[in-house]
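Field log, afternoon session.

UNIT: design team B
ACTIVITY: writing a sequence onto a fixed backbone
BACKBONE:
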């Protein structure tokens, strides 16, 4: 028998932690199906839907990693329905932010009366591992199992804190963007506010210095669309400090939310890491925060660049508008 972890790709961190726990207590990695990790996912050259259908029909033990993200995913609901029809053995595991009284859960194919457990409940995780001994080769070393469970709970708690913080920042960002009275590629209000701010930092806003000319030339002639879109993102949201390292994925989630509200395609979110590296190479940023191991986790645009952004010329604004218009999301008929 195999273990199939049915999950939303947005919950990959919880899923990876679960995989590490299962392997840590003795389950062979070849017996685990977890599609968000290439090592346990769909082989190259296979049709995704046929492969998943065949695996489910083989009768694996299905672990439902249930979360708000899960019930927003059509693919997850299809997996749930397929596994329910086959009547696989199943275990429901809830992410920390999952609500048991949610309408989706109470009215899904899964029976809400069946016992599941939260992923951060140490006693229930230990009991779950014990229950797997009937079907899988689990280590008989209880000390080892206890160690693996404690490590798992610690990892889950770290993930919970990060995702909770990210959810809060995403919500705040979405509200900030939606509160704008009318959506424009680059609003006149931003330009006016920028000019007012810049006037406090310079004695003359009517003349352009060498740095301003260089910045204009950079925007007009040197930067790619995705680089200009990052400047636009900074101008629209006021985020002069950008996540890097392990915080890149959180910044990308912020950008995806912004793109959704702005009705833009995913050019920037798909290329954020590359753009950030190019900004570093062009010396447009500096490290503004580091991890406990002294690795960069946040980059800030240089102060001179921030001032130039706030006091952009009409020509630069026109260029940014043009790029933004080119990346407005278009709906194609099927």
């Amino acid at each position: 028998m195999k273990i199939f972890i049915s999950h939303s790709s947005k919950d990959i961190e919880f899923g990876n932690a679960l995989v590490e726990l299962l392997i840590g207590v003795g389950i062979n990695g070849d017996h685990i199906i977890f599609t968000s990790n290439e090592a346990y996912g769909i082989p190259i050259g296979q049709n995704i839907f046929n492969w998943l259908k065949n695996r489910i029909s083989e009768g694996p033990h299905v672990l439902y990693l249930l979360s708000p993200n899960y019930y927003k995913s059509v693919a997850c609901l299809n997996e749930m329905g397929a596994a329910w029809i086959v009547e696989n053995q199943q275990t429901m595991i809830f992410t920390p932010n999952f609500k048991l009284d949610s309408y989706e859960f109470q009215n899904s194919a899964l029976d809400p009366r069946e016992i599941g457990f939260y992923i951060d409940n140490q006693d229930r995780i230990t009991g779950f591992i014990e229950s797997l001994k009937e079907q899988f080769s689990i280590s008989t070393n209880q000390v080892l199992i206890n160690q693996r469970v404690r490590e798992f709970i610690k990892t889950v708690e770290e993930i919970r804190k990060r995702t909770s913080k990210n959810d809060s920042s995403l919500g705040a960002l979405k509200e900030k963007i939606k509160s704008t009275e009318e959506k424009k590629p680059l609003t006149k209000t931003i330009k006016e506010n920028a000019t007012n701010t810049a006037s406090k930092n310079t004695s003359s806003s009517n003349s352009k210095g060498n740095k301003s000319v260089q910045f204009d030339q950079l925007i007009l002639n040197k930067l790619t669309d995705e680089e200009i879109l990052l400047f636009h993102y900074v101008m629209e949201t006021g985020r002069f400090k950008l996540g890097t390292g392990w915080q890149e994925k959180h910044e990308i989630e912020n950008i995806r939310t912004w793109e959704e509200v702005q009705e833009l395609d995913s050019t920037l979110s798909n290329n954020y890491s590359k753009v950030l590296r190019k900004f570093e190479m062009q010396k447009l940023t500096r490290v503004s925060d580091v991890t406990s191991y002294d690795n960069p986790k946040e980059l800030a645009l240089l102060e001179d660049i921030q001032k130039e952004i706030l006091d952009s010329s009409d020509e630069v604004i026109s260029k940014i508008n043009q790029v933004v218009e080119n990346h407005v999301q278009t709906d194609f008929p099927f």
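LOG NOTE: The two ends are 40 Å apart (CA to CA).
NEXT ACTIVITY: expression trials, pending approval
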